[in-house]
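Inverse folding, one chain.
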């Protein structure tokens, strides 16, 4: 592994998935060049199209002459390619498998619910989607309580793979809450996730790259031409 090769990350400041890669590189103390795609939904650079010709989306990690795509895949690659810094994935095979499972749950089930709320055509559909989102967040709350053992992060005392996976929810959830007027992260149903969110946002590997909820909402209003 040519660990001294040039490292470049193509991302977008408002992409919650780019935060996963940036935080992982920070945790591993990897020096890299960052290329921001400020309006990736409307305009994509030649470098992005060349580096990720299949999905054409951020983030993309370029390590030497190799391009690594998809955010969770990038985080796993970073953890394996650099021995510097703490391990991001758990060392025990069962714990690693569980972390990957819940990351998949987040990307498929919870993001699916978020998209359903945002894309609902009427109040009935929106209410059904909102109920499903709350149900999935309650499931994630239970998983957090079991895996964190009261120590703050999904993996315990230290931030890890599942925290980076879950961190992508914070921006989209704040946008959906602002647009719908409904609180999805509630003290009575998701107390652990609320405390975790504060701790996650404040972590030194996350804070420099995580937009505030207000910045996420402002970006979404501009994107959808909402006053």
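Residues assigned per position:
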């Amino acid at each position: 592994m040519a660990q001294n090769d040039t490292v470049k990350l193509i991302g977008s400041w408002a992409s919650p998935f780019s935060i996963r890669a940036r935080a992982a590189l920070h945790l591993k103390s990897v020096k890299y060049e960052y290329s921001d795609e400020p309006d990736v939904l409307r305009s994509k650079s030649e470098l992005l199209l060349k580096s990720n010709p299949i999905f054409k989306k951020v983030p993309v990690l370029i390590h030497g002459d190799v391009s690594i795509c998809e955010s969770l895949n990038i985080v796993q690659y970073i953890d394996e390619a650099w021995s510097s810094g703490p391990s991001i994935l758990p060392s025990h095979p069962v714990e690693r498998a569980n972390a990957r499972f819940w990351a998949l749950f987040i990307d498929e089930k919870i993001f699916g619910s978020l998209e359903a709320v945002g894309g609902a055509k009427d109040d009935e559909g929106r209410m059904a989607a909102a109920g499903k989102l709350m149900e999935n967040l309650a499931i994630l709350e239970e998983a957090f309580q079991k895996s964190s053992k009261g120590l703050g992060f999904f993996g315990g005392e230290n931030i890890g793979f599942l925290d980076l996976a879950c961190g992508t929810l914070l921006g989209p959830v704040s946008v959906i809450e602002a647009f719908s007027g409904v609180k999805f992260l509630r003290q009575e149903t998701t107390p652990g996730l609320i405390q975790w969110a504060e701790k996650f946002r404040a972590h030194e590997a996350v804070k420099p790259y995580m937009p505030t909820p207000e910045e996420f909402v402002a970006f979404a209003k501009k994107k959808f031409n909402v006053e």
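The CA atoms of residues 12 and 37 lie 5 Å apart. The longest helix spans residues 93-119.
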